[in-house]
Amino acid sequence: MTATLDQRIRGDISARIHSGEWPPGTRIPYETELAAHYGCARATVSKAMETLARAGLIERRRKAGSFVARPHSQSAVLEVPDLASVAAAKGETYRWQRNRRATLAAGEAPDIAGIAGAALAVEGVHFADDLPFAIEERWISLAAVPGCADEDFADTAPGTWLLGHVPWTHARHRIRAVAASATEARRLAIRPGTACLSLERWTWRARDYVTYVRQLFPGDRHDLIADFDPS
After folding, report:
1. Bridge pairing between strands 195-205 and 208-218
2. Helix, strand or coil for residue 72?
3. Per-residue pLDDT tens over the stretch 85-114
4. Taking every pair of C-alpha atoms in the chain, what is the biggest distance, in angstroms?
């Protein structure tokens, strides 16, 4: 079935957002500009933009235009934090060390990652004042975020990059107390069996599943704080 013009406009804008070509905060061309580009009535463009706004992809601001939506970290019970910012807020010097980066074909990501298609796998360690405070294993859907295929993540952690390029709309967390394995203990410079906090997160952008990450923190090096209101 041939797509309608407003569907084509939505698809073009969505593709630019998901690819990272238009990162959060980017002003989208004015509706009059888009109407001229697509050779259609402004009402057709407005219909497409309204649908994108309802999906959480863009924000429409009166008299200012439309912009790619920024991440809303308070829309989940827990934040989706940037660990670099967490360390900086404590006055600590942050550093990311990438240990592995691999492109996986469809079906190669672990089942828990929930990515059936091609994926990018990244592993590394987060440091604060040269002390490891978290290890990370992450898988990113290349169908949802094709732009990450060009990133080496040698100096920037994938979570930091994703927060800056791919606004998210829904996240699920699983938090558990676990004992560090010998391998995990070595990476975190702790003793095997030390109590740690395991944080797993699945993240979506509208209907697109974006990433799964598991982060492991020594129990005495990380706090989880959330604000709640009665509902």
Report:
1. antiparallel
2. coil
3. 878 877 889 999 999 999 999 999 999 998
4. 66
Find the domain containing 186 and state its range. 74-218
Q: Which two tokens stand for residue 220?
A: 């005495």
pLDDT of residue 80: 67
Mean pLDDT score across all residues of the chain: 87
Q: Are residues 117 and 212 in the same domain?
A: yes
Q: What token pair was written down for 146?
A: 């094709």
Sheet of strand 170-179: strand arrangement: 94-104, 119-128, 131-141, 208-218, 195-205, 170-179
Q: Is 46 helix (H, G, I), strand (E, B) or coil?
A: helix
Do 85 and 159 belong to one domain? Answer: yes
Indicate whether 229 belongs to any domain. no
d(CA 190, CA 193): 9
Task: From 68, 91, 117, give the residue that closes a domain.
Answer: 68
Same domain assignment for residues 102 and 56: no
- Chain segment 165-185, per-residue pLDDT in tens: 887 888 888 999 999 999 999
Asked whether residue 166 is assigned to any structural domain, the reply reads yes
Residue at a domain's end among 14, 45, 68:
68
The predicted-structure confidence for 121-170, as pLDDT tens digits, reads as follows 999 999 999 999 999 999 999 999 999 999 999 999 999 999 888 878 88
Q: How many domains does the chain have?
A: 2
Could you tell me if 194 and 176 are in contact, meaning their C-beta atoms sit under 8 angstroms apart?
Answer: no
